[in-house]
Design brief:
- Helix content is 41%, strand content 16%.
- By secondary structure, the protein is an alpha/beta fold.
- Helix 1 (17-27) links the parallel strand 1 and strand 2.
- Helix 3 (74-84) runs parallel beside helix 4 and helix 9 crosses helix 10.
- The longest helix has 18 residues, at 107-124.
Length: 276
């Protein structure tokens, strides 16, 4: 059995599309899905939980993405507090920092939203799912706007101060850092979740981290409908395609695909013990 630890199911909006995506995942042996509840902003972050409540094998998160950090109003945070208390809402996220686009909120706004959401998750005793784009990949305009600010450095510092003391684990979603980032994330109690970009030719740093990470700290995901793995790169991604990332990661680590499936499933269930 495989588990897609991060997919945006509420992005499949065409008539019949969502059910077809879910059915193809089941046919491919992807038997559990974590639907990410960021919507297109806080006003729709409940949609993933609605999907989860309609399907016994689907679970949900809820959170305010850093690109919408300016919408982390008291009302939105109160809504998030309500959602995270629901049984099938097993995580808070994806949350974090993103200095990649020039139109993203400013650094203080992003950091304030991140800290507030970590506190909500800590109060609920539920893991957080982290989004972080490394600043060296930012657009030139964003680099000019954000200056010396570094998303990865700031993120890890805030986690160390505001999250790590609570002793609750979390997930570095779509891990895209290097070996140093991996070590620091693991030291802070985070799992590393690998997506389709692991299979891309220029992703040697991610592959180094995937080979290095302890066996009990790895997960797999699609980030669907984004980041389809090779041989489907450039196409619309979906949870069924996590089998390609799993096979690639298994070969990278020198184990069988079945062993990788068993390993990542066990890790997911340890992280989220209420998952059947």
């Amino acid at each position: 059995m495989l588990i897609d630890s991060h997919c945006h199911l509420d992005f499949y909006t065409e008539p019949g599309e969502l059910q077809a995506v879910i059915d193809r995942a089941s046919a491919a042996g992807v038997e559990r899905l974590l639907a990410i509840g960021i919507g297109d902003g806080p006003g729709t972050m409940h949609r993933a939980l609605e999907i989860a409540n309609e399907h016994p094998h689907i679970y949900a998160s809820a959170g305010i993405h850093p690109q919408e950090a300016h919408q982390a109003t008291p009302e939105s945070l109160a809504k998030l507090e309500t959602l995270i208390q629901q049984e099938k809402c097993i995580a808070l996220g994806e949350i974090g920092l993103d200095y990649y686009h020039v139109e993203n909120p400013d650094v203080p706004t992003q950091q304030a939203a991140f800290i507030a959401q970590m506190q909500i998750a800590a109060n609920a005793r539920k893991p957080i799912l982290i989004h972080c784009r490394t600043s060296e990949l930012a657009t030139p305009a964003a680099k000019a706007r954000y200056g010396e600010a570094d998303a990865e450095r700031d993120l890890l510092a805030l986690i160390a101060e505001h999250w790590h003391p609570h002793g609750i684990p979390g997930v570095m979603h779509c891990f895209s850092g290097d070996l140093g980032h991996a070590r620091r994330s693991l030291d802070l109690g985070f799992y590393l979740s690998f997506a389709g970009n692991l299979t891309y030719p220029k992703a040697q740093g991610i592959r180094d981290a995937a080979a290095f990470a302890p066996a009990d700290c790895i997960l797999i995901e699609t980030d669907a409908p984004f980041l389809a793995p090779i041989p489907h790169r450039g196409q619309r991604n979906e949870p069924a395609l996590v089998v390609h990332t799993a096979a690639f990661l298994a070969e990278l680590r020198g184990i069988s695909a079945d062993a990788l499936a068993d390993l990542t499933t066990a890790n997911f269930r340890r992280l989220f013990p209420t998952v059947a």
